[in-house]
Each structure stands twice: as structure tokens, then as C-alpha cells.
Amino acid sequence: MARKRQKQTASLSSILIAIIVALVLFFQSQGEYKKCYVVEVVDGDTLKVNLAGEEYKVRLIGVNTPETNHPVKRVEPYGPEAKAFTKKMLTGRAVYLEFDVQEKDRYGRLLAYVWLEKPDQITDEEIRTKMFNAILLLEGYAQVMTVQPNVKYVDYFLQYQREAMEAGKGLWGLTVYQKSKKKK
Question: Which residue numbers delimit the TNase-like domain (predicted)?
């Protein structure tokens, strides 16, 4: 009887330890921000950064700016403006990368939310003012583009795009984008 009780206690202890370890690992991965420096803007939604002495290409999650630097596609309307805005805002600047579920895409680029400052809390106001992905949407330089499983901020992003569309900001003021505006 005592031996059975010891086995049960040992099993419960093992399960409890496993749960605690899993929770610690989960919370450590939440809210991690990697500080890096933007060394080049490839286009409105793609950057080259220096992270811990290594250069990486970073694709902003959840947004798509019109093309300016695509091997097959032509320069799209409002693409140069989006690239110029990103360049003005980020070149040479320290930023913080936040990763979602998938850290890299099939091209080997890091997939990240780019924060101008670390957020104190994840609130609508913090996202609007500190996350560059959101700023691109709010200013009309980008459209929402979601790729599963990286959808952490999709509800915020859809709202920010709606606001830019309704205000006719950026690309939403161009006739070519009015068609997609009516579909949404």
C-alpha cells in the first residue's frame, strides 16, 4: 500500500514539474523582443537588419505594400511612396522584432512585427503608435495580408486598414485601389 502511494506521489510530482517547466518556457517565449538596427530598406515591407552582428532580411508580418523591387512584377502604384516612407522612418534606426508562430518564410526571411519602441502593454494605443506594421496600415501605405499561422494582430490590422480606407489615406486615395476598397 505504501509503495503504491509512493508511485502515485512520484507520478503526480513528475506531472507537476512537467507542467511548471512548460509554463515557464511558454511565458519566456511570450513578449520577447529582439533589438536590431535597420541597415537597408528593400521595399515598403522588407528590411535588412543587423541583429547580434549578423545581417538578416526581415519581412513584416500581416502587411503588404505595393511592389517596387520584385524580380517579375512591375513597380506598382504607391510602391515608391511606401518604400520612401519606410526608408525615412526606419533606416539606421534601432527597432525591436517580435516573432509570431513561424519565425521564417520559405525564402529564409525572418517574419516579424517591427516595433519602434518596446510596448509597455499590448494595447490598441501601443500598437497604433509603436508598431511599424500598424503604422503602415493606418497611413495607407499597406494592405492587410495574412498568412497562417502568423495572425496574432490580424483583428487590429483589419481595423486600421478600414480606418485608412474610410479616410482615403495613401493608396486608398488612388483609383486603382478603389476597386479593392469596394470589395472589402
Answer: 32-174
